[in-house]
Every structure is written in structure tokens, then in C-alpha cells.
Amino acid sequence: MKKQLLNSMLVAFMAFASCESLAGFDEGKAAFMARDFATALKEFKPLADKGDKQSQHILGMMYDEGQGVKQDYAQASEWYKKAGAQGHQDAQYNLGVMYAQAQGVKQDDAESFKWFEKAAKQDHILSQFALGRLYTVGRGVKADAKSANHWYRKAAEQNHYKAQLALGKNYLDGDGVKKDVNIAESWIRKSAEQGHHKAEYEMGLLYRDGIAVKKDTKEAYMWLDLAAKQDHVGAAQARDAMAKTMKAEDIAAAKLAASNWHAKLPTETKPAPH
User: Fold this and answer.
1) Topology adopted by domain 1-107
2) For residue 240, how many other CB atoms are within 10 A of its CB?
3) Residue 75 and residue 62: Cα distance in Å, rounded?
């Protein structure tokens, strides 16, 4: 899990785009965008002291990143708490991460779960996925596959590619849900179509073994090749093993399909390997 910093900073600024801004907020925004962090701090600090949750969250991020101030996770967590207590979703998520990773606060799985849950109930996608993971591994809460899938589904329906894969694999294995390979394939495909290397690998296996789809070695090779190009070791091994029994022209066609598939994907939909 990573804290949501730059994107949530932009969201904080945009929240005031269609309404009257607090005095000093626009000046702070302009200074921050110009990377004049010292001036931004002077503008946001009085607003944060007066209880403005957007400014409190921004101060938390500035201390988190060391922008205009010396990096200080303890100070960051205090400002996040102030904003989070007022319902700021990104601040709540960031607190969940900090309690999980012992950044500025004592490591506390229960507190981490609490803050993720607060944000998740407000439809915060990253927090929904985080809750799914916590329910899966039993960290900060008793392991519960059914609850995990509930939160994975919430995030998956908002196009979170990792949640889509997790939900798909649980349907594939019947973990916390009734096993259904067709639903599994649908969710795994949604993730793979966003360029997620782990989902591409799973799609390759589905086509290789004929699970929920018609067995197709060329299609399997294509998906495995896509994953292998993102350094998925298992995909490379499975692809190379398949190649030993495939015709040269079929391999060439599959490689071309993989090349063309990447060309269809917008750059921003290609997540970096994790």
C-alpha cells in the first residue's frame, strides 16, 4: 500500500474550483503548483489551524513529503488525524497506511483497519481494496473471505485492477464465494485488459487449460507473452514451455497479437509491476 499524495493534492485543489474559496487557499494552491512550498505553507497553515480539513490534509502531505518543511511523519500523521476526523477520505486512507507501516505513529493494525474502513465506507477505492486485503490475511481484523470479497467487489466495480484480479481468483477457487469460473474469467479479463501483468498471466492459463474459455494456445501464448514482457517469471516459463509444442507460424501470430494489443492500450492504463 502506498499513500495517496499528489493525486489527492490535486483533488483537494479541485474541490474548491466550483465554489467560493477560503481566503488564502487559492494563493496557497498557486504557490504549491509553482513549487514555492514555503509560501504555500504560509497560506495553508492558518486555514488548517482554523479547522479547514482540505488545508489540514495538504499540510499532512507536505510534512509527509518534506515539501516546504523538514519531512516529519509524526507531524504528517497529526494533520491527517485532524482532517480524517472531519471525514477527509484521502487523509483517512493515508492514516491507514501510516499505522500499517509505523510511519510517525506506533504500528497498530487495528487503527490501520479503522481508518481504512472509514474511508472505504465513503467509496474510497484504495481503502476498499486495502480492507479486502486485511480481511484476506486477517490483519487488524479476523480473517473473513466473504467480507474480503465484499470490499474487493466494491473496488473492482470502480475499476481497481488489483481488486478485479483478487475477486476473479476467489471466484476461480471458490474462496468466500460460490465457485464460478465464468464470473472469475470476467473479472480477471477486466484486470488484464488494464495491463495488469498478474491478470494477463491468469488469462494465459485459462486459455491454455480451457477454463471458462475455449482452449486456444495462440491466445494463451499472447496473454503469457504480455505478462512476461512485464517481468512475470511464471508467465515467461509457461509461455516458453508452450512454445515447444507450437508451430512457428502460430507463435509468430501470437507475438504479433501481443504487440498489437499493447498498441491498443492507453499509456495511463498500464500499471507498473508490483
Assistant:
1) 1.25.40
2) 13
3) 10
Q: Kindly tell me if the per-residue pLDDT of 270 is higher than 70.
A: no
Q: Within the chain, what is the greatest distance between any pair of CA atoms? A: 71
pTM of model > 0.90: no
Number of separate helices (H) and strands (E) present in the chain: 15, 0
> What letters, b where the CB count within 10 A reaches 16 and e where it falls short, cover 40-72?
bbebbbebbeeebbbbbbbbbbbbbbebbbeee
Average pLDDT, the chain: 91
End-to-end C-alpha distance for the chain, whole angstroms: 10
Domain ranges of the chain: 1-107, 193-274
Task: Return left, alpha or beta for 72; rule: phi > 0 is left, psi -120 to 50 is alpha, else beta.
Answer: beta
Tens-place pLDDT, residues 102-140: 999 999 999 999 999 999 999 999 999 999 999 999 999
